[in-house]
Design a protein that fits this description.
Helices cover 55% and strands 0% of the residues. The chain is mainly alpha-helical.
Length: 105
């Protein structure tokens, strides 16, 4: 992996920790939603998941977060499948860490 790619991955990881979906935009972590690092994370093939921090306070849901990804960043079915697999892999239950072994996905 080249130095530039490594630096970009580091920046994407750092930014993603500060800017979480619509919440990041609403808190001012990103100046506009189009500047959110999720696109860079996808383009660099990083592992990440999508979450809602406080749905009541930020008026968001998983549905609205996924819609935002689709409408703003052009995410498609393959992107959402990867996000789902990453989310399952991040869980604590060992039997859910290997979604490729599941017949339900």
């Amino acid at each position: 992996m080249g130095d530039r790619t490594q630096r970009l991955k580091g920046k994407a990881n750092e930014a993603a920790g500060k800017a979480k979906g619509a919440v990041g935009y609403k808190t001012g972590s990103v100046p506009r939603i189009e500047a959110h690092p999720v696109r860079l994370a996808r383009d660099l093939d990083l592992d990440y998941s999508i979450n809602t921090d406080d749905p009541g306070a930020f008026e968001c849901s998983m549905t609205s977060e996924y819609r935002l990804l689709e409408e703003t960043f052009g995410f498609q079915a393959d992107d959402f499948t990867k996000i789902l697999r990453n989310s399952l892999a991040a869980r604590f239950q060992p039997h859910l860490r290997y979604p490729e072994r599941s017949t339900h996905l």
